[in-house]
Amino acid sequence: MPEPAASLLDDLSRTVGRDSVLTRPIDLAAYASDASVYRITPAAVVRPRDLVQVRSVFEVARGHGLPVAFRAAGTSLSGQAVTPGVLIDLSRSWRGIDVLDGGARVRVEPGVVGAAVNARLLRHGARIGPDPASIQACMVGGILANNSSGMCCGVAQNAYHTLDSLVFMLPSGTSIDTAEPRADDRLREAEPSIHAGLADLRREVFGTAGLADRIRSKYRMKNTTGYSLNALVDFERPVEMLRHLLIGSEGTLAFIASAVLWTIPDRPVKHTALLLFPGIREACAAITPLKEAGAAALEVMDRAAMRSVERQPGVPAALQGLPPDAAGLLVEFQAPAESDRPALHEAASRAVRGLSLLDAPAFTDDPIEQLGLWKVRQGMFPSVGATRPRGTAVLIEDVAFPVERLAEAVTDLQALLRAHGYADAIIFGHAREGNLHFVISQSFNEPEAITRYARFMDELVRLVAAGYGGALKAEHGTGRNMAPFVETEWGADAYRVMRGIKRLVDPGGLLNPGVLITEDPGEHLRNLKGLPIVEPEVDACIECGYCEPRCPSRDLTLTPRQRIVVRRQVARLEASGGGHARAAIEVDFPYEALDTCAVDGLCATQCPVGIDTGQLTKRLRASRHSPAARRAARWVGRHMALVERSLRGGLAATAAIRNVNGGWVLSLASRLPRALGIGSPLWIEPMPGPARWRRPDGAGAAGAAAVYLPSCLSRALGHLPGEPRELTLVEAMTRVSARAGAPVFVPADADGHCCGVPFSSKGYQEAHAQTVNRTIEALWRWSGEGRLPVVIDTSPCTYGLRSSRPVLTAANQARFDGLRILDGVEHAASLLGRLAVRRRQRRVVLHPVCSLVKMNLVPELERIARACADQVVLPIDAGCCGFAGDRGWLFPELTASATSAEAREATSAPADGYYSSSRTCEIGMARATGEIYRSYLYLLEWATREGD
Questions:
Q1: How far apart are CA 379 and CA 304, in angstroms?
Q2: What distance in Å separates the CA atoms of residue 695 and residue 731, rounded to the nearest whole number?
Q3: 126-128/327-335 β-pairing
Q4: Is 725 buried (19+), middle (13-18) or exposed (0-12) by CB count in 10 A?
Q5: What is the pLDDT of residue 378?
Q6: pLDDT value for 15
Q7: Cβ atoms of residues 760 and 740 within 8 Å
Q8: Before 130, cis peptide (omega within 30)?
């Protein structure tokens, strides 16, 4: 008789295929957490690819007596996406987007990120109605399952009210497409008890005194507590009731396979101000006149919230001198067309007359200034997360109050938070809808802390539900942490109907038990996520998942959040003496977490608390290096010129072999060491030939506008097979610069100088410091002690040098501060006004490398391309290619996975050229697309060249 775990693995593998079933300890640890304060290890994680497989997973789980839960992005804040049973992971598939009716509607699948839907709707002047703050990371499955809203969405534009149709599967295995004309008949024939039962429940609602009116009243404000009972009031046909009951059902009733949503107009024209008031009462008194004037966003902030961000860069200085009881309203008027701007100005001007303000209102139309104002609002949650004590979780909760009582409610909520010792609490929220968020830090490591939290929750429920008749959950979903209190908010009659819905649609309790409604009054206090103290990056993480869409390994191994989650689990096991379990995780950790991390740092650009998980990866890689390996790295760093010559020689030799025997010999030979357990690079076409490296003739310092240091990649890696060979990259840069009257000087002793990134990415810290210090000294000398700017032609190298200050000696830090290091993209863009464009390509495709994104230089790359081409395509799915210096040769599966979506988009239509700003990234994209990617400098040189 096999063990239950083995039996479950076998049964699920027969259903979805072995590669789609995860049961290793490292996988189960990675999926045990979502963005909430709960942690539950699943029995298995499965990735079904179609409805047939979903039905089979239901059958297997039922046969094993296990519940089923669904997980899309796992950004849920209330514990909806964790389970002790079978977790269905939708994040690696179910990504379909189909724009319908010229953008009036859109068909979406649950595994697509909300922002990706809006990106495809943008050219149609439309977007989806829900606008949660997590839209860059959350997926449609969660948006639908939680009935998400956001800052401008309100009630009218949430998922419930913009829903056109659904395709869903019930726990019984019945699937329904509500867009079909006979959908209601199909439900009646396939599920007669559900069809009749929904009609009975509707009659019960209307037959219970005052219940229908109470439901209507409750949904005039934001409310995601419990099931969407308005479905029983708003619709008569059972299929329509069920369709809308599934919105906000948090995976407890059915699997949503796809949805068609009505879109709303995108409103790019904005008029924005941060209004400051003496107190919260004056701020709340302004809500109604501003709302009636048409304000699309009204974000309220208490003094503690503004204090949490007042000293951050870019935040208005006026916040620092505010009185202790001050409050703010971030106000934004929006319109779809520039012609509407005067009307916005007039509406705003009328609305603020007579308001009790601390300062005169200062509305702005400047997008940069508007970003700064929104930074005030968006920086509040991260500010608490970044400064909380180590080992504590950060909780962001949301409640809703009647707008007319909002000032009183804020005051009472502040008092409640103080009474329970949450000194760091801040309050802000969507004042337009009476929706408040509060953020606290909370430990779940000690029983006393959990008891404090339990008492606070009890009093919060009394305050919101009994004291104000508000909603315990306005937009984050009920989840586990409010499930015990649904009846308290709604009352016995409504709760009885909710229980009836669950029993009717999921009589066996298969789907997500304990979520949304529960018979356990302590559900919200079970499986709380204790956080051990591990490392700075780990301890700072709030496990929100915002980093994941930017991670190149997200569809292959672990994401940044999962790397941290696993590190925390290893620390828990180490502390509890779970040596065997820890070893089971650690055996897979090197490949899953370290080898396949691209250390590109893009995770930090989306992280609310600025964590660069790549830095953690580098440190962990460093811990694996032996003293001999570190000595070897230092030797390589001292002899980079020899390394470059050797690499050029090796590439020349392999090119000769390829010309005689083809690439198969080299491919086979490169795989032999792998068979012996040696992790050597693989030969994978296309491979570059050797660079034709030589210092250009006449490239002296006299009259030069800048020093040009070709990267070691430019000095070593040459053209790809099939790539035009008339110019080297160095020649392209020098010709364009000279043509614009800004000649560059290539130092005679440039060989052997390196940005140090190849060493830092592998965790060779001493070699990195040694190499980059030597280069900074040379740049200081070449530039005439900072007189000339320095141009680097490879963006990762530019970023590496710009980021090197912490590892420099004191003397070199002073030199660094006197240097101006430019990326080639910056330099080339600055030349455009002095260059005559003589020919243009019709259509070009760009790949913006990670470092260019981090340096905010993608717009400059686009500007260069637009000067030289009629159509410039920047793929929506563009991201890190995963080549990461040498990862593309050591772990080609990382690059293949990271580039798959971008490659499909890049090759969806013919183009005249494909361009980027890093040779290795260009190799990776060429490998993915079958097209030749080359430097943007070739495009600029060709477009400005005289003659043919």
A1: 13
A2: 9
A3: unpaired
A4: exposed
A5: 81
A6: 95
A7: no
A8: no
Dihedral angle, C-alpha 313, 314, 318, 322, nearest 10 °: -50
| Bridge partners of residue 847, in order along the sequence | none
Cα dist. 674→87, 666, 677, 680, 683 in Å? 34, 13, 5, 7, 12
In the block, residue with structure tokens 């912490």? 806
Q: Let me know how long the chain is.
A: 948
Using alpha carbons, select from 739, 497, 563 the residue that is nearest to residue 26: 563
Q: What is the location of CATH 3.40.50 in the chain?
A: 836-944
Residues sharing a CB contact under 8 Å with residue 859, sequence separation 6 or more, in sequence order: none
Residues 682, 687, 689, CA angle at the centre, nearest 5°?
125
Q: Average model confidence (pLDDT) for the chain?
A: 94
- Measured CA to CA, the distance from residue 948 to residue 946 in angstroms comes to 7
Q: Where in the chain is the domain with CATH 3.30.465.10?
A: 97-265
Predicted pLDDT of residue 252: 98
Which class in CATH covers the domain with range 97-265? alpha beta
For residue range 298-357, list pLDDT tens digits in order: 999 999 999 988 888 778 888 888 999 999 999 999 999 999 999 999 999 999 998 999
21-22 vs 44-46, strand pairing mode: antiparallel
In this prediction, residue 1 carries a pLDDT of 34
In this prediction the pTM is 0.94
621-655, pLDDT tens digit by residue? Answer: 999 999 999 999 999 999 999 999 999 999 999 88
Which amino acid appears at position 550 of this protein?
R
Q: Indicate the angle between helix axes 238-245 and 183-190, nearest 10 degrees.
A: 90
Greatest alpha-carbon pair distance for the chain in Å reads 93
pLDDT in tens, 173-212: 999 999 999 999 999 999 999 999 999 999 999 999 999 9
Secondary structure class of 707 (helix, strand, coil): strand
Cis peptide leading into residue 67 (ω within 30°): no
Q: Which residues of 677-713 are buried (b: 16+ CB within 10 A; e: fewer)?
A: eeeeebbbebbbbbbebeebeebeeeebbbbbbbbbb
Joined together, the tokens standing for residue 87 give 């977790």
Using CB atoms within 10 Å of the CB of residue 127, give its burial: 0 to 12 exposed, 13 to 18 middle, 19+ buried.
buried
Is residue 917 within 8 A of residue 824, CB to CB? The reply is yes
Least Cα distance to 33 among 412, 629, 528 occurs for 528
Token readout for 367 is: 């997008």
Q: How far apart are CA 392 and CA 480, in angstroms?
A: 19
Domain 269-381 has CATH 3.40.190.10: no
CATH class of 836-944: alpha beta
CA distance 394 to 471: 21
- CA–centroid distance for 400 within its chain: 27
Name 473's Cβ contacts closer than 8 Å, sequence gap at least 6.
Answer: 78, 223, 224, 225, 398, 399, 479, 482
Token digits of residue 838: 């003589």
Query: What 3 state SS string does 207-271 have?
Result: HCCCHHHHHHHHCCCCCCCCCCCHHHHHCCCHHHHHHHHCCCCCCCCCEEEEEEEEEEECCCEEE
Q: Report the chain's terminal Cα–Cα distance, integer Å.
A: 77
Strand segments (E) across 370-498: 393-400, 426-430, 435-442
Whether 13 and 24 have beta carbons less than 8 Å apart is answered as no
Burial 160-190 (b: 16+ CB within 10 A, else e): bbbbbbbbbbbbbebbbebeeeebbebbbee
Q: Which residue has the tokens 């934004």?
A: 332
DSSP bridge pairs for 822:
791
CA distance to 78, 392, 445, per residue, from 529 (Å): 12, 9, 8
pLDDT at 697: 59
The closest alpha carbon to 514, from 500, 525, 530, belongs to: 525
What is the location of CATH 3.30.70.2190 in the chain?
269-381
CA distances from 700 to 535, 740, 748 (A): 49, 17, 9
Q: Do 563 and 613 touch, CB atoms closer than 8 A?
A: yes
